[in-house]
Specification:
The protein has helices spanning about 5-10, 40, 45-75, 100, 105-120, 140-160, 175-190, 195, 210-220, 230-235, 240-250, 300-315, 330-335, and strands at about 20-25, 80, 125-130, 165-170, 200, 225, 255-260, 295. By secondary structure, the chain is an alpha/beta fold. It has a single domain (about 15-335), classed as Alpha-Beta Barrel (TIM Barrel), CATH 3.20.20. An eight-stranded parallel β-barrel has the order 1-2-3-4-5-6-7-8, surrounded by six helices.
Length: about 350
């Protein structure tokens, strides 16, 4: 893989596939930053100063989101995952607040709406991936209650900016996958229509495989985001092609979402889970290339990695299965995959 120089990286590559490629949360080259806040500092402020401080962060982050959308469009990137801390501490048990408490004159609301309108005009799809402490299937009621509150707040911001996806992992597997799946379904039922209509579930690389989540998705009508890296790390007897087909079917006409990454230390390493700085084009499933799908590129070098991958694919003379996605490691992993005891 020949890496791009700065000038080349700033030019959108020629589009070869039907895929809408997505960037996750941050930039490494563009001077776009999202501000954060800590409970420790915020709790030291007087109420008025606290409100002004948090309000300035929310307003600045809404403006930064508009800049992020514009930069994605310039690079030919068609989706952007919004940081889950775009309005920080909102659901914190002590420092939390409602958006309306900060937004005197609807300045913040209008700024988020403007970013969303820009995303619509530039055809940049927006999504959220709430933090891992959001566990709808926890055995603890307080955790489930806090998780519902977090998703509801994300849904409020998602509605303002036009984001159609709140992506969540299956959660914990206490009591076994079947019992955990039942708790997950009950947690989903606690969400408002605004949150539930945006909720999607993602297979992970340790607990919930594609085969585990499909029954929950099919019963609840919640789509499945297929993470192919996670599936390769945590196989379940389904091939990549089968998993892609079944995940896409859960979107019922909406544009499906997928996630893609490469292992930092290679597929033959003791732990292939950590993400690499870039994505190896051989890790792109051939079955994805002619689909109209959104694929978030989860890579450490952020927009450089997305642009590099788009260019690598565009420069290939063909997208046949001998060229992409069928490296020896993948063949071996699929051959070794077996349905797991307790899976549905």
């Amino acid at each position: 893989m020949e890496l791009l120089c700065d000038d080349e990286a700033s030019r959108p590559p020629r589009r070869m596939t039907a895929i809408r490629w997505g960037l996750c949360c941050q930039f490494v080259d563009a001077p776009i930053r999202f501000r954060t806040a800590t409970h420790r500092y915020v709790s030291s402020l007087a109420p008025a100063a606290r409100r002004d401080y948090l309000s300035s962060i929310a307003r600045a982050n809404a403006i930064a989101l508009a800049h992020a959308v514009e930069r994605c469009a310039e690079l030919g990137i068609g989706a952007f995952r919004i940081t889950s801390q775009i309005v920080p501490l909102a659901t914190h048990p002590e420092s939390g607040y409602a958006l309306g408490e900060l937004d005197q004159g609807d300045v913040i609301t209008r700024a988020f709406q403007a970013a969303g309108e820009l995303a619509r005009l530039r055809d940049v799809r927006l999504s959220f991936h709430p933090d891992q402490f959001v566990v709808l299937n926890s055995e603890r009621e307080d955790v489930v209650r806090a998780s519902v509150a977090e998703l509801e707040f994300h849904a409020e911001i998602a509605e303002l900016v036009g984001a159609d996806v709140l992506c969540l992992h299956g959660g914990g597997a206490a009591g076994g996958v079947d019992a955990a799946s039942d708790r997950l379904a009950r947690g989903i039922d606690r969400l408002s229509a605004r949150a539930r209509s945006r909720l999607v579930l993602e297979n992970d690389d340790r607990l919930f495989a594609v085969r585990d989540l499909l029954p929950v998705c099919e019963r609840s009508g919640v789509p499945l985001v297929y993470d192919v890296h996670h599936h390769r790390c945590h196989p379940d007897g389904l091939s990549v092609e089968e998993a892609t087909e079944r995940a896409a079917a859960t979107w019922y006409g909406r544009e499906p979402y997928m996630h893609l990454s490469s292992p930092r230390d290679g597929w033959g390493s003791a732990n292939p889970r950590p993400h690499a700085a870039f994505v190896d084009p051989a890790d792109v499933p051939p079955t994805w290339l002619d689909r109209r799908i959104t694929v978030d590129v989860e890579a450490k070098d952020k927009e450089r990695a997305v642009v590099q991958l788009m260019r690598d694919l565009a420069d290939r003379p063909s997208a046949g299965t001998d060229a992409i996605g069928d490296g020896p490691a993948h063949v071996e992993m699929r051959a070794a995959a077996r349905p797991r005891t307790g899976s549905r």
